[in-house]
Structure formats: structure tokens, C-alpha cells
Design a protein that fits this description.
Oligomer: single chain
CATH topology of the largest domain: Rossmann fold
CATH architecture of the largest domain: 3-Layer(aba) Sandwich
Structural class: alpha/beta
Radius of gyration: 30 Å
Largest sheet: 9 strands, mixed
Distance between the termini: 63 Å
Strand order of the largest sheet: 1-2-3-5-4-6-7-8-9
Strand content: 5-15%
CATH class of the largest domain: Alpha Beta
Number of helices: 16
CATH superfamily of the largest domain: Alpha/Beta hydrolase fold, catalytic domain
Number of domains: 2
Order of helices and strands: HHHHHHEEEEHHHEHHEHEHHEHEH
Amino acid sequence: MKEIAERLYSLRNKNLQLKTDSLHFGADICDTMVEQNKLMRSLKAIIRQSDEKNERQIAPVIEALKTLEERIANSADAADARTEKKLEEIFSHLDDAGKAYSKGLCERLDRTVGAYDALLKKGHENLEFWSLSKKMIVFILTMLLLFQLSLNYKMKNELQGLHTQVSMIHSLYKGDTKYWFDPDNQMTYVETLKKELTYPMAWGNSPIRNFKKWKKAARAKVLECMMTPPKAAAAWDMEVLGEEQRDGYKAQKIAFNINAYSRITAYLLIPDGKGPFPTVNALHDHGAHLFIGKEKMIRPFFTPEEQDSPTKQVLCQEILDDADAWARQLYDNQYVGDYLAKHGYVVFSADAPMWGERGRKEGVDRNKYDLIAGNMMMLGRDLSAFMTYDDIASTEFLASLPMVDAKRIGCVGCSMGAYRSWMLSALSDRIKAGASICWMITTDAQLTRRFGRKENGGFANCIPGLRQYLDYPHIASLACPKPMLFINGTKDKLFPVPGVKDAFAEMHKVWKSQGADNLLDTELWEIPHSCGLKAQEKILEFLDRNLK
């Protein structure tokens, strides 16, 4: 009984505070409207006078309008912050007092917006009757009035934005969610949808208590959601197209059948000396830059045929320049694949579907990628899943090569390459250790407004229906008890830190449950979205510890 009384007292205090904040917000709006009415009267007086003092009188009005604009912007920002905070409290407590306040606030905002509509209508009516006898005055006053009207519309739109947020929360309480979209390309009922994600197949949520049986069932569910896989190639049929000796290792450009539909090119780096060697599947990033793929991980070189063709020479130089620029931008001017090859690893890298040579002929870009991905879904296939299926197939291909130690294969990647790395680690038993730099988060954090994240998702990591069963960290946990390295950046705007921490915590629960928490390394560094020299050194140390 005491706990109930304390709860009710707490809710009463919260409601009183919310009402106080609402009154302050309402007072700010009223003050703003009073000032706008004063300015409108000043404009009318100027028109009626029509004398030589008009210009001097107009100047302070313009200045006042500018001041008012700044005040409106500042007031709107402050009101938005206060409203967002209080709405979160309302949504958290779900009590009758909170519901009543939310409904009242919606109604007050509706009335405010209505008042602004009336003000705008009145301004238009007055404009029709004002004297237009002097051309200069007509011009100046027209500009002033347009400026004033734009301010009114701006304030109205901001109020409507606040109204939308409050209405969304209120509709959630009432159960009458609306099927429409907000400016951030999300459904206004996205919070409701997220609340319905219970992840019933996650370890600890699933009724399966035997870890091996759970892993088998969860992996099968992931593969089921990945829809129909590509048909396997009848044979790899590998061919060496070109070769180049580098510092301590040999670079080959090869071609092979990755599946029944595609014969692709790839880079293969082989250390000098006697193998078989530990091997790394180096998985390239996204970066909304599809012109190069494998060339992001291994410095490109070109076959005699490409070098002898005048038309291809231009393209070759463009590819090399682009790859070098990308290495400088994301990898501290060092190619990850070449760095690992110098330290005794066979390194392989291939283009993901629609990247590099697998998309360059069509001049593929981000929009075309999304279009093709949508068309693939119409065929009952998933382009993101095809990328993972190809990564699994390329790892099997690596295991067949004589210079590769099939028992010591790992994978690495940054950004989308990191996503590919933990997906591959989760779904392929060939992978013994995986490193992922700057790609791990929860769906809740990925699809939230709280962190100001604009890019929420994309076809490159979209597997239909999978989120009804497992979240990103749950899928990555299928790699348990393998050694895994995850590094994310506190300055990475694509992956908000709270979501990263939650994802890391979910994975640690799984590894800890299997007595393998020492094999899961999750780190937050003060870095942006990148894989610089320090991160590459960490990757090498991790691979040496687990593959050599």
C-alpha cells in the first residue's frame, strides 16, 4: 500500500511539473503572437501615413522582425526540447494523469495553430484593402508582408511538428495509430512497431535451453529469412588472370565461379614461403560508393590485357586513383589486405554484388542498387542475403586452395564489411575468428530520433522478416564461442553509443553463458566511422592470437 501511495505521489508531482512547463510554453507563444500583432499594427500605420518618414519608420520594423524571427527559432527549439523530454515521461508512465495531459496539450496546440491560421487570413484580407499609391511603398511593404507571412507559416509549421509528436504519443495510448510517414522517412507508428519486437528466437528468450540445439534452430531461421539462395556452382574453375610480386607476398587477380549465375574476379595475396598459411577473407565496405569494391581492401593492379588496351588504361588509372583516395579517407592510407599479407596471411577480397566489376558496367550507384534490390525481392530473392551467401561461398572456395590452411580462416571488415564479417562468422563454420570495425547496434537505436541519426537502414543489411525473431547482436551471437573482435567509435554518427553498448551487452550475455566471455572483445574507441592504423594493428594482434 505504501508503494502505491508513493507511486501516486510521484505521478502527481510529475503531472504538476508537466502542467507548469506547458503553461510556460503557452505563455511564450502568447507573447510571440502579441508582438506579431503589434508589428502588424505598425505596418498599417506606415501605410496610412504615406509620407517621407516611411523609410525611417520601416527600418526599425525590419529590425524588429529579424529579432522576432530569432526569438521564434529559439523559443521553438527550447519548446521542442522541453516537449520531447516530457513526452518521454508521459510515454514511460502510461497513467491516467499522463493521458489526460497529453490529450490536453494536443488540443491546446490545435487551438494555437488555428489562431495562427486566423491571423494569416486577417493579414491577407488587410493586404487587399491597403493603399498602393506609391510604387516605392508598395515594393517595400510587399517585401515586409511576405517576410511576416513567412514567419507566421514557419511558426505554424513548427507548432504542427510539435503537435504531430504529441498526437503520435496520444494515439499510441488510445490505440488508434495512424498509417502515415514523418519527414525522417519513418512511419509515425514506428515506436509501436518497435515495442512489438520481442525477439523470441534470441538466446535466453527462446524456449530451447541447449545451446547447440538453439544455435542450429536460430541459424536455420536466419537462412529461412534470407529466402531462396543462389544455386551453387558446379565447379570453382579458378583461373589466374594476372600476377604481381610485392614486398614479401605475391598478388594475383583471379576469376572463379562463385555461384551458378556469376563468374567473378577477385584479388588473392599469397605470402612468400611455404604454406599452407592462415587466411583472411577481407570484406569491403559500403560507403555509398560502389565504383570500387575489392579495391578498397587490396591495392589494385591490372592484367596485361587491361594494361595494353588504350581504352582500359584510362579506366585502370581511374580505379587506382579512386582506391588510393578511399584508402586515405577510411583506412589511414593503408590497405588492410596488403598490411595483413605482409604479416604472413593469405588474403582474399572479392566484389559484393553490384560493387566494382560486378556493377561498374551498368554504372551502378546507390539509387540503382536500391532499385535492383527491390526487384530482387519481387523475384523472391534478397540482394543482401546474396551478398552473405557469396561470402559463405568464397570462404568455401578459399578452403579448397592448396596454399590455405582450411582450419585457420578468419574474416575482417569495416562498416558494411564489419556487418558482413559478423554475419559470415555467425553462419559459416569455416570461419574461426572474425573482426568487425564500426558496425554493431540494436534496431531500437538504429530506428530512433533521439540520437539525430538520419540514415536508418538500407537494402545492404535488410533481410525480410528477420527482425521478428532476432536483432543484430542476437544474430552475431551465433558465432559464439568463436573469438570475435568488435570496435565502434564514440564519434561515429552512424552508430549511436547507447545502441552500441546495448548490443555489446547482449552479446556478452551469450558468450558468458557458454564460459567464453574472454573470447569476445568489444571496445569503444574515440574515433569516427573509420578503420585507421591503430584499429588495423588491433586486428592483426587479434588474428595472430587466434589463427597462428
